[in-house]
Amino acid sequence: MMQPTILLYKEGTDESQGRAQQISNINACLAITSTIKTTLGPRGMDKLIVHGKNKTTISNDGATVMKQLDIVHPAAKTLVEIAKSQDAEVGDGTTSVVILAGEFMKQAKVFIEDGVHAQTIIKAFRTGCTMAVEKYKQLSQSIQEKNPTDTRDLLEKCAATALNSKLVASHKQFFAKMIVDAIMKLDDDLYLDLIGIKKESGGALEDSVLVDGVAFKKTFSYAGFEQQPKSFTDPKIICLNIELELKAEKDNAQLRIEKPSDYQAIVDAEWRIIYEKLEKIVESGAVIVLSRLAIGDLATQYFADRQIFCAGRVSDEDLRRVCKATGGSVQTTVNNLIPEVLGTCKQFEEKQVGGNRYNIFTGCQQAKTATILLRGGGEQFIEEAERSIHDAIMIVRRARKHSNVVGGGGAAEMEVSKYLREYSRSIKGKQQLMINAYAKAFEIIPSLIAENAGFDRTDILNKLRQKHAQGGTWFGVDIEKEGICDTFESFVWEPTLVKTNAVTAATEACCMILSVDVTIKAESSQDEQAQQMGRGRGMPMRGRGGMRR
Fold first, then answer.
1. Which pLDDT does position 162 carry in this prediction?
2. Which of 40, 191, 242, 526 reaches 20 to 30 Å from 96, CA-CA?
């Protein structure tokens, strides 16, 4: 007897399930990993990504590359998300987290093909993750020093390690000092938005400077601007969110008047309103006027006649930083301008940097701020330098908050791998094999660091295994001498938070992809597609193909 056909999904729905689907998801993730694995380490290669209308991005930052890749595979998108989360939480280790996740899946793939249930693998990997995080915490060394000079030196070493694998690695000592200077200027809250990075093309990287305060590019100005003073000592600053210009009449506006004098009264009232605004600003005592909206030619000349500096169309980010730094607050009206809403700083000046002029506020007492004026050659180069410095700033910020570090260069990963291998030998059953495979995955970090530097990865790994078995906890890859060295003694340090966050995120991503055994892709039905095609196009025309006889 024939069984009736049962339709569960709409026509066009694609369903994949079973072991083949799990392996397909793993293969998609491994394809992504193979794309960015060559960017890992101090000698990692850069990626050139062309997108949009011939817009190019050159970067070896894992999060940047993952964002730019137009990944459509639903499982592979998970790797993009963990790279973003690592970038947001820690700022560095974005390549490592993707590579670790891919290696965990590669090790799990063997068991999936052998018919082991995914939940058995997930249980073992989660056990291994918990133990790895605990081991990282045991290995971590505190760099908290009572002597501020020693603390500064330690933070500079963390910054140099973060910059070691970036495009600006050849200038890592120069930028490490600058980054630590910027972080040390902040108060204990360490608000990241109080550090600004301004890019100015031209010059060399060594021409970059750190401004002890707020700096932003000169905004659009009208006639009369050059007559304004460009330098003040202990000025009062007012920040506004109002327009200070005469507005044109709206299109299609209609105004009925009985005599010409009525029209003149309206014009006079408009001029009187703007002059009242300007007079109230002058009466407040402010000598620097900043506004998020436009400051017209009338107001510009008015302020110039009274030796007041003004800048309109200041970006929202810069205006907020000025307010936080100087102690002022943004005003939406010029009524009741009490002294408490005005800001102040020790020195203001307009200065030429490269081909542009910058407004620079220094000596801000209310909140400690810093701005890095970044110089460089090509546009792609300076953008990558900005990303590199941002990563290093995040690392130093984390190291100042959480002062625990571990040795870099793959040393910590080798020690965790050794610890998990030893544990796996002490248990029975399938878990032994899976935790041993999980431990092996950690060796991908030193292995790729060596391979990307052009070394013999097998030789380096054998030497590292031997040293760690003999108790050499901090031995990792030595890029300079093509061998191994004690990375902790060589001051190759990374915050423990980078490692623990990477392992946790990579393991969770791997477990989530392993737990998926069915993928249902619901395509729109033909009727819905027809409706979408016809939407907004009027009624379809008929009979265009022939002529009626």
1. 83
2. 191
Residue 326 has, within 13 A of its CA and on its CB side, a CA count of: 34
| CB 239 within 8 Å of CB 290 | yes
Closest CA to 381 of 541, 216, 530, 171: 171
Answer yes or no: is pLDDT of 502 > 80. Answer: yes
**Token match 């005592």: residue?**
285
Structure token pair of residue 482: 């093509």
pTM of the model: 0.75
Region of residue 541 (phi > 0: left; psi between -120 and 50: alpha; otherwise: beta):
beta
What's at 29, amino acid-wise?
A: C
* Residues involved in catalysis: 61, 94-95, 391
d(Cα 505, Cα 133) in Å, to the nearest integer?
A: 11
* Stretch 44-65: mean pLDDT: 81
Which helix (H) or strand (E) covers residue 348, if one does? Answer: strand 347-353
For 432-444, the pLDDT digits (tens) are: 999 999 999 999 9
pLDDT at position 536: 47
Average pLDDT on 269-280 reads 88
What is the percent of the chain with per-residue pLDDT over 70, rounded to a whole number? 88
d(CA 470, CA 475): 11
Residue found by looking up tokens 């990282």 in the block: 136
d(CA 7, CA 363): 73
- Report the distance separating Cα 356 and Cα 215, nearest Å: 12
| pLDDT at residue 94 greater than cutoff 60 | yes
Does residue 252 contact residue 218 with C-beta atoms inside 8 Å? no
Per the CB < 8 A criterion, the answer to whether 36 and 86 are in contact is no
Q: Is 56 in a helix, a strand, or coil?
A: strand
The one-character DSSP state at 64 is: H
Specify the 3-state DSSP secondary structure of 15: strand
CA distances from 391 to 92, 164, 460 (A): 6, 11, 28
**Residue 460 token pair:** 């380096």
Q: In angstroms, rounded to a whole number, what is the distance separating the alpha carbons of residues 44 and 348?
A: 43
pLDDT number for residue 521: 65
